Amino acid sequence: MNMVATLTGAAAGGDGTSDSITSPTDRTVLGVIRRAADVVVVGAATVRAEGYVVPRTASLAIVSRTGRIDGHRLAAASVGRVVLLVPESAAASPPEGVEVVRVGPGPDIAPREVLASLAERGWRRVVCEGGPALAAQFAAAGLIDEYCVTVAPSLTPAERPFLPLGTHVETDVAGMIVDEAGFSYLRLRARRGGAANRR
Questions:
Q1: In degrees to the nearest 10, what's the CA dihedral of 166, 34, 67, 103?
Q2: What burial letters (b/e) apply to 20-33, b meaning 16+ CB within 10 Å?
Q3: Residue 48 confidence (pLDDT) above 60
Q4: What local confidence, expressed as pLDDT, does residue 198 receive?
Q5: Does 31 score more than 50 pLDDT?
Q6: Number of domains observed in the structure of the chain
Q7: Is the pLDDT at 21 greater than 90, yes or no?
Q8: Which stretches are annotated as coiled coil (predicted)?
Q9: Residue 42 belongs to what domain range?
Q10: E-strand spans in 50-164?
């Protein structure tokens, strides 16, 4: 998982996106993580809010309960690099070049179903970039190996936490740095055998 948050736990700044709470170093980290991945997984709401484009070095998998994405900039994607994962019952009219993949009866798509569908395509190195609800589902299911979190030195209103967990996740610190601008970059590794303990 790779996400950015403020000191108060907000996943977005005043403009409603993560652009206003990121940094050049954070964007460099993002690029490194994406280059090591086969596919980036993200929720449809985040695609709409952030104006997502297709990563240069990884494929893009969008998870949606409704099949709705207003992502006109995705239309330039090469065929086979962008998939829209939806329940079997959902209607979907994606932009050209985006393939619809139906996963499970719905209305929700389980994280394990997402990973299984991606694995069928040979996409096994997966990075989840949120949003908060999707990332929390993956974390609660014990499916995240590493958490890479950039914390911006900002105090902002936070209606919802960037990772709204309902379970305790056991982790160990694998690395942390702080830059001159006050941004911290934290890498946590999930403990195997006890990654998620449901209440």
A1: -70
A2: ebbbeebeebbeeb
A3: yes
A4: 31
A5: yes
A6: 2
A7: yes
A8: none
A9: 38-124
A10: 59-63, 82-86, 99-102, 126-128, 146-152
3-state class (DSSP) for residue 139: helix
Domain-ending residue, one of 84, 101, 124: 124
Higher pLDDT residue, 139 or 72? 139
Q: How many CB atoms lie within 10 A of CB 64?
A: 21
Give CA–CA dist 34/13, Å, rounded: 23
| Domain edge (last residue) among 124, 142, 164 | 124
- Give 56's DSSP letter: S
Residue range 105-126: mean pLDDT, rounded: 93
Q: Are residues 44 and 108 in the same domain?
A: yes
> Which tokens in the block code for residue 78?
């090469």
pLDDT of residue 172: 97
CA distance 44 to 98: 13
